Write a sequence for this structure.
C-alpha cells in the first residue's frame, strides 16, 4: 500500500513516481496525467510533493515550471445543491 499524496483525487506516491519515471514529466504534465492537485483544495496539500517528484524524475530542466494553485471560487452550501430526500 502506497502513501496517498493527493487526498482529494486519491493519487498515491507510487503512482506519481511511476508516471514521472515513464514520461519524464514536468510538474504540470504530472498533474495533468494523474489529476494530483486538481481536487477540491486546488493543490494546497500536495503541490510541493508533486513539484519535488517531477524535479527528481524529469528528463529535462523543470526548475522554472511549478504548479499554480487557487482557492475555490466561492463556498457552496449543501442546501443550495438540492433537497435531502
Amino acid at each position: 500500500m502506497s502513501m496517498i499524496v493527493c487526498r482529494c483525487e486519491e493519487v498515491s506516491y507510487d503512482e506519481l513516481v511511476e508516471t514521472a519515471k515513464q514520461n519524464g514529466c514536468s510538474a504540470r504534465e504530472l498533474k495533468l496525467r494523474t489529476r494530483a492537485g486538481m481536487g477540491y483544495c486546488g493543490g494546497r496539500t500536495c503541490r510541493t510533493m508533486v513539484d519535488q517528484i517531477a524535479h527528481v524524475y524529469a528528463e529535462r530542466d523543470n526548475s522554472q515550471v511549478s504548479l499554480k494553485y487557487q482557492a475555490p471560487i466561492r463556498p457552496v452550501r449543501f442546501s443550495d445543491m438540492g433537497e435531502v430526500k
